[in-house]
């Protein structure tokens, strides 16, 4: 159990807890002495730290390692930072990743169970079989529960992917109720699978970043490959249905310039695109409101996803 | 009661029914005789007609008039057309506009009543007061029930506007149930009012076309003026709320290049834009499927709104 | 009368004058003491200031207040700043807004009188009646004389709006003389009214910023509402003319992507757009030349409105 | 003197006059006989013509030749066309080009004289010397007076270039009077020279079309070369001034995507671009109004340059 | 062996040969009799045909069938067409597809052999193994030799794909010789595989058209799937190399708006994109020159791929 | 011979060598003393320097001068800078420009000789005559060997232009071998001349920057003028050929929005554009890899020309 968190540190107090190393750079001070300039993160934020007389320490830990730090908090030009006295790498058993990254406010296990529950209610048939083959694959499930939905734009926290998908599936059931001609199972399939490739596009076990394959291939093509693999293992998966699911995944960004090589060509693909886009933008707005909660005035700062400032909601 | 319709006319048969004059042009035949080249429309389609020895008739009717026609159907290069023998303008009492234009498959009165019913369920307060001031204004109500939602893109038939708005309001209730922080009444207000200006932007009592003010000013600015007028008549209408409703109307096209002078800056405005866009595009797809019902193959022709061909739904 | 101005302050000298509070933030120094970090502005520029032992003072003034400051100028890392010893809010009577904001080099009253003079020379008729109803409205007149024409792009100073409009009207008379078929009164009306909404879009009585309504609705729609209000009060204002004036206001940015929901559809609207654009860009160039007067070399820095560097004019 | 014109021909009447051959194609009729299908033009319009038993005639005239035609007018499916009986090529002395192309309503010689007069009033110096070197060059003068200002967009008739330039120079004098800091002579130079390359970009002595060099190099680069040649012949032409004139020519389309390799970087270049664009678009509107004079309703057809329909001016 | 071809048919002659049915429509003539309006194609072009008294024939053949036709050529309004007397479907054994479609001027078998030869010269290793696994797969080889490289833009004929790829591989060897740091085998792999999906995106055994999967998924994603399948079957195919090959295929259109979901991120991917684009555009120019060989003048008609007219090469 | 270079300076060591003054600014320190804040550059990099008690020195040297510096290296907040003790301007004879700017790793004289050699192998005729007239012009040759190919995007070092052009000509010979219909001499001419204007667009004898004419006119139009001048001096230079060479120069950026006023309209112009673009982008990638050689990880930083990060090549 992590002893204390970045947001609770106060100047002139000793520190004795663990952090993830976000960045590490060796520098030379004006007096000619070398030091390590570190950024330490946990789920609540990032704090800068200095380790003097560093040359003994450099090799012992690296970026993305979790370390135990002993030192004290100082004020540096109005900003707190840590003067490190002792630092040592933690063992894997000591680490609970959720202590070092923001995470969904809801329990990923519960959300995943709810998603599975919804999928199991689908009428018997190839769509349900495919979705269960994906969601019950333990290697997929483990990553699906952990993954964020995006690097920074929306749901950018552990558990964000499953939170986003579950929200979408619940929303879709209502939208399909409203538009009776929509094939509900196809919409659900599209939503469950549309961002599946994110589990490999992003690296989120030690710092959020794109994997090399993620940058070169992208989550749309990665997800498509996983889904096709599952389809091949299902006897007599209908070819037409398979192509339609492929199309929904490929077209879910809606336009070529947003990275979809195809644009939605039937109603279910269109609905998946719109709901995904709406849910992502609303989540981005919510995150902006939370971040600018204490900012004075009626407006947030500029939301980078929407490229505009937002009018704050009225205070109740 | 109109005796027969364009789609039921057959060559070599006499015609005795009414049509709306869609176009009228005086031409000279090869033999030097003048004739009138007409397009006659009713709710089921358009048919070409020729009136020989026309110079007696020219002044008696004009484009957008409803006329009674006596003649017979001929085949002209594989296409049927009418040889007109007698033609005379109908009196207003004889005319049921729905005979000459496509109309919603649902009864506009019922849809309008449903919309009013929903608005009356809003919690007491300025939003409900404003919406009722608009919807219960008899001059607005009459036009709102008649207006199409667009010239050709979607819901392009009499009653299309109220059908579109009612669909949106019902959908919005579900979406607002899903995203608890949305202000339901503000979303409903935005949806009821977003296209209000269409009642003056379009002319639909005698042919679908843009009015001159519609082309010069546009439905967004026209609608805004109507809504502001109603707000002024409500004592103490809250200024903040008024501005937010103005913004939703102004921003509902989502982007500057689609004619919105502002982009959505808070969640309710974003939701109005997305739902409007989704409902319009799904309606456009439905209309395309209906139009291409008998076209062979798996694909529709190119949908002009989406600028792509559509994959047809599977045949049950 | 303000005693001294930002550009005349010199290090190591005492300060005893008034400023407008542009920003105010409470910070903690390295020694643990709190201080206020201030930006103080007047018509000649902005200077940073520090107020130590601040916790007595925080509540007594706020951003956009005018305050009397006693202290001295210090050099901080090559930049002068004020160490504040005493600070107190001025009473409204003490304040001449022109001391705190850049202002037109011409007298707004004179310019407004010239504009009114020109409008009174219009031939009798609804255009002149409308323009006088607007310009002689005392609440409008007061703001019209004060308002800048833009936040930063051009004429971004008190009196900028009337200076811009007067320049346009004088220019238009010559252009209309050249193109005889242009309706001069309609062009004059378009130019007088095109930016009228700026009087409410911008806040300029205490710091230049957008109002909340300005950001959500924009000066085009705000101006349109004011103008329609005046039209309604004129008996028998011709409907056609009214729609054309509405169109000129709506289309004066020339293109959808610049925030005009309509593009100019007749010559007078086109002329208003071109003259407005030309006058604005020339003013932006003049301001750039003034700002870079002492910059060495043949080129200015990058002009943000034109997104390019400008060749300086030859030195006489 | 041409005997009669296209717009005055009436069916069942003999024809005996001259035309320019706009197109010529040999075809085979259903009865197996060959015929020539011709388009004949003069300044008032184009008429189709048929020449039977054509194989004797094919070699005797070609596209862009002026021919004398004897025949009669027939009605072909409601459109008049000429049945040719005799056809023979005219000699150059017989031809007045103005009979075959639309031409300015003003006399090119007078307009050119007015332009020269204005240039001669420039203060003595290199700008005036350069402009006279260009305008008094007989080879340039002859073509400048004849050339249209554009293929179809605006001033698309003989004498259109000098009409456009003269209008601009007169307008510029007023604009430079309004903005005192503008260098009037530089603006005049830019306007006189900006489209100079059109005299070689377009072919207009026998049909309006682009020359091959016009398509490959364009009027901007062609004009630049002519102007540089004249500058080289003037002793001590100031280098700075020369570069600025080059820049005005290069940048007069205002944006890269309109074919200007540079965007205006000083006020005189900006003014040349704006006035050129405004004068062109107003001329395009005037031409549209003239073309749609008899079209019923308040709107013109779509103006191809502005890509929109235009509201017609009120009828006096 | 097909007896005669479209381009050699002459009016008033009997016809006795085979064609592919490109379109078929039942129409009613003015006299009330039904007829079939047909388009018949072979490798040299398309000719219209009419079959009277058609109701016996309608069911016996369909679009994309090859039929034997007996009739004669007539002239219809200057264009030849066939009056069909007898028509019957050919058996598969009678059909040589190359008779009905344009085909490469080079022998696909030879080109494929040359391509295989080049691949076999690659140094031993996973790249060569992968390429041979693809090219020696009989199902792939058969289609690869037949497929066009595009629907209409370039190499739009049978054998076009292998012609395009072979040209690229030969060109790439020279380019890689010039830029020594390029990994030649990776460039060759990218070029051989970049358009592999075209073998399923296009249907070319009976008329050129997109397959439904081709429209919904696209050749990039289809090709990627085939390549991944082959990689999975190669023991220890290096993961890094696999991802790089995936990236080259995904990015070969160069930009998102051209349908590549990723842009080239290393030199070999960039080279594949540039060479593919250059070879395609040069082929499109060559085809344009061939098509406009007999068109008079220095210019071709507008090339649809380049969206411009082309200057013809000088005549030797 | 320069004694030492920026990259070899170490803190606490004396400095005694020459630098080029990249920037110079007089500032006031906190203690009220003035000092000069300098940036000093040589071929290996840039170092900051301070000169105290500066008011004696200010007038003696200026930006772009080469100066001899005596002082010592200090560490300032982790970055080395020079405390200047003595500084004096060098005489022109002392200066070898190559000591102060990055330069090609190949000898410009050798590269220019190779280029000349290739041109001399062209078949006798006007193309060879023109190219030799250009390349053997001593004033051109001197600048061509020195010029960089671009300010920063690619080959941004002394000798970069000739390196780029030589690479292109060698590559073109291979490409023309592959596409037999290309006119090799025209491609070579286009490549040799396409960037000729860079010798005047850029200033590179004292700091890399654009000349005023370079910014106002651009290298395309400057180069065109030089080439036309040479053509005029060649008796009977074929007009068609001249226009084609002009077109290749004008169109070599490929698209209007990249500053080409014409787009390539025949194959040789297309090839020049593609090869130029490819060689430039590959050179930009190589420079990025060199700059990020020591950066950890698989990815470079963002390449500004390609606007993306690059995957590093595998380490051998």
Q: What does this molecule look like?
A:
The structure is a homohexamer of 316-residue chains. The radius of gyration of chain A is 23 Å and the shape is elongated. In chain A, helix 7 packs antiparallel against helix 8 and helix 8 runs parallel beside helix 9. Helices cover 40% and strands 21% of the residues of chain A. In chain A, strands 1-2-3-5-4 form a five-stranded mixed β-barrel. With 316 residues, chain A is of the alpha+beta class. Chain A has nine helices and nine strands. In chain A, 40% of the residues are buried. Chains in contact: A-B, A-C, A-E, A-F, B-C, B-D, B-E, C-D, C-F, D-E, D-F, E-F. At the B-D interface, helix 7 of B face loops of D.
Question: Secondary structure elements and their pairing?
Answer:
The structure is a homohexamer of 316-residue chains.
Chain A: E1 14-28, E2 34-42, E3 45-52, E4 66-76, E5 79-89, H1 108-120, H2 126-135, H3 138-146, H4 160-178, H5 184-193, H6 198-201, E6 202-203, E7 209-210, H7 212-233, H8 239-251, H9 267-291, E8 299-303, E9 308-311
Parallel strand pairs in A: 3-5
Antiparallel strand pairs in A: 1-2, 1-4, 2-3, 4-5, 6-7, 8-9
């Amino acid at each position: 159990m992590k002893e204390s968190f970045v947001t609770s540190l106060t100047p002139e107090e000793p520190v004795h807890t663990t952090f993830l190393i976000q960045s590490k750079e060796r520098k030379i001070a004006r007096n000619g002495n070398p030091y390590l300039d570190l950024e330490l993160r946990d789920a609540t934020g990032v704090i800068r730290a200095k380790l003097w007389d560093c040359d003994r320490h450099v090799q012992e830990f690296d970026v993305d390692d979790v370390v135990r730090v002993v030192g004290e908090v100082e004020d540096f030009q109005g900003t707190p930072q840590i003067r490190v006295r002792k630092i040592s790498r933690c063992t894997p058993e000591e680490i609970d990743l959720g202590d070092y990254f923001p995470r969904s406010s809801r329990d990923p296990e519960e959300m995943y169970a709810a998603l599975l529950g919804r999928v199991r209610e689908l009428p018997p048939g190839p769509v349900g079989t495919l979705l269960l083959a994906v969601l019950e694959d333990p290697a997929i499930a483990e990553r699906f529960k952990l993954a964020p939905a995006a690097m920074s734009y929306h749901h950018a926290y552990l558990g964000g992917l499953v939170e986003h998908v579950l929200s979408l599936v619940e929303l879709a059931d209502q939208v399909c109720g409203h538009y009776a001609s929509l094939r509900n199972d196809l919409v659900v399939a599209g939503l469950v699978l549309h961002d599946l490739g994110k589990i490999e596009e992003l690296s989120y076990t030690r710092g959020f970043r794109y994997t090399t394959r993620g940058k070169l291939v992208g989550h749309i093509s990665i997800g498509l490959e996983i889904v096709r693999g599952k389809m091949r293992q299902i006897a007599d998966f209908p070819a037409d249905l398979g192509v339609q699911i492929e199309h929904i995944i490929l077209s879910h960004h809606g336009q070529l310039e947003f990275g979809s090589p195809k644009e939605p060509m039937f109603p279910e693909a269109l609905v998946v695109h719109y709901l995904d886009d709406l849910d992502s933008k609303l989540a981005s707005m919510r995150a902006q409101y939370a971040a600018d909660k204490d900012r004075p005035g009626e407006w947030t700062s500029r939301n980078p996803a929407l490229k505009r400032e937002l009018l704050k909601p009225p205070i109740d």
